[in-house]
Amino acid sequence: PAMDQDIPVWIDGALRPMDKLEAHRRGVKHPAVSVFVLFQGRLLIQRRALGKYHTPGLWANTCCTHPFWGETPLDCAQRRLEQELGLRGVALEHRGVVEYRAAVGGGLIEHEVVDLFLGDCASEPELALNPEEVMEIRWVGIADLRAEIAARPEVFTPWLRIYLAEHADLVLAGS
């Protein structure tokens, strides 16, 4: 999708269109989706492509994005898994909605109301990375991920750090 794409944002209590970059410059609250895919108790994390307009080269959860107008959060989550990772057919469970606000560098602010989804794969999925979105992936145990974040928080996106610190009970409960 082009960077000049409008996303839904809340203005005066109603959803209205706003340029995605402008929404992040102004820190306007907007809907988002974050997906966590597990296999054998390990989380699939991605390192964001260097061409991304914020947080390039940082490690994030499996995928995250903004829904299109009229797109359900579940449809959005499935679309982005396929677009970013070539991942299809993962049954996603809605795990709740959280709100966070975080500076993401370059004067940009994510202020998101996020639908969280968890997918637990029975077999290791085949992936086909979109190099415009993802430069690297790996599977990591949650305890190991927490230790890595504690040791080197600067190589992880602010939202991944927030999710693990404040919302792990939602996204990873039972895993």
Q: What is the number of strand segments?
A: 9
Which sequence of SSEs, written as H and E, runs from N to C? EEHEEEEHEEEHHH
Approximately how much helix is present in the residues? 10-25%
For the report, how would you describe the main beta sheet?
Answer: 7 strands, mixed
Shape assignment: globular
Which regions are unreliable across 5 or more consecutive residues at pLDDT < 50?
none
Give the N-terminus to C-terminus distance in angstroms: 33 Å
Strand percentage lies at: 35-45%
Coarse structural class: alpha+beta
Q: In angstroms, what is the radius of gyration?
A: 15 Å
**Total helical elements:** 5
Q: Mean pLDDT, rounded to whole units? A: 93
Describe the protein in words:
- This protein is an alpha+beta fold and about 180 residues long.
- The chain is built from five helices and nine strands.
- It has helices at about 20-25, 75-85, 140-150, 160-165, 170, and strands at about 5-10, 15-20, 30-40, 40-50, 60, 65, 90-105, 110-120, 135-140.
- The strands form two sheets. Strands 3, 4, 5, 6, 7, 8 and 9 form a seven-stranded mixed β-sheet that branches.
- Strand 7 and strand 8 form a beta hairpin.
- The longest helix has 13 residues, at about 75-85.
- The relative contact order is 0.21.
- The mean pLDDT is about 95.
